[in-house]
């Protein structure tokens, strides 16, 4: 389309044509309650598919069985966290910490490449908000009917529709609360207890707490969570650079905007000012005002604009995923930018450390505790004894027989009355007392205290490669 460079009607168009900076409006469009207009298109199909998979996995994962128990179960009461064949304990929280760090850097890595795409396609807040909007649409109708219902006086029809909607929202929130708590309490027990009102007070309280949070967040707050509560919206721009792909309006092509008939000759830009990009936006912004932190990169405005461009016979892509350099016709260095490479290297390093930590993860936990009441004891047969308590935990999901051994640095050995093999059940910790002695060689006058080091080793007899050792001091007497 031809551009009128001398036009002063639209300052945005003039600045875009001259290559000058375009003013950015940082506030969403103020148009009351947002009722999202339903939009079809490739990006909305992708978003709907990913949101549906996320919700489906969220509810189905607790029902996956594994070796007679729930595959993923975070048993807070017993302090056992089961992930299929891996059981983690509080002392293994470094693994979870690494997972969170990796997730954070992976999010930064994706953000520097494709902007706030996580929020638009995979964020639980977005997924559940769109699910609640779908429920609202089925009961109250499309966006125009919902706006009309808001303005209509209270009547029996309005009461029935609003009551049905909030009842459906409450039920969806309750099911979501059950789905969340099912990761902490076996799902096969939780759902029957909740819906037969036989659950304990605290279980019921937690389920309804998360049900209420879901009802408020996805039903009432929706975009307010993205605009005012989500911290990611505030610091995401620090990860952007001129090569980051974001949903962008091509002002140089679209301005000056204005309505026209199809196939009408005009000197206006390609934007027909249909306002569909605003009507379909979940956060209610006008993408034509430039990059705004409220944009969640869901692509709804892209699909709406492409649909309009098709109707008017214009090329698609007036609103599209594009970088600042691309819009300014500059060279795009998406895969060689400093941030992209830096975050990529950071993710690889974190993954390597996590893999190493996971590889070194021990299935046996050993803690050696000395008797703190006395450093040593002299007994009648010429021995000096030290007492220890071995805290041995079987961190696997099967019972195992273990061998306890001691690395000698002198004439040390287990007391004869103690056994060196123990059976520890799955997930249990055994407190095992051990006495270590040293036979005195002679009676020393003026002997002084001597500290030596001994090491206890616990070995899994069914898999000798699984072993763990810990050193501890041994105190005795020696000559000068």
TrEMBL record:
Keywords: 4Fe-4S, Electron transport, Iron, Iron-sulfur, Membrane, Metal-binding, Transmembrane, Transmembrane helix, Transport. GO terms for molecular function: 4 iron, 4 sulfur cluster binding; metal ion binding. GO terms for cellular component: plasma membrane. InterPro entries: 4Fe4S_Fe-S-bd (IPR017896), 4Fe4S_Fe_S_CS (IPR017900), Cyt_c_oxidase_cbb3_FixG (IPR014116), Electron_Trans/Redox (IPR051684), FixG_C (IPR032879), Ig-like_fold (IPR013783). The chain crosses the membrane at residues 48-66, 95-115, 167-185, 197-218, 340-359. The keyword Iron-sulfur applies. Residues 262-290 form the 4Fe-4S ferredoxin-type domain. Pfam families: Fer4_18, Fer4_5, FixG_C. This is 4Fe-4S ferredoxin, iron-sulfur binding domain protein.
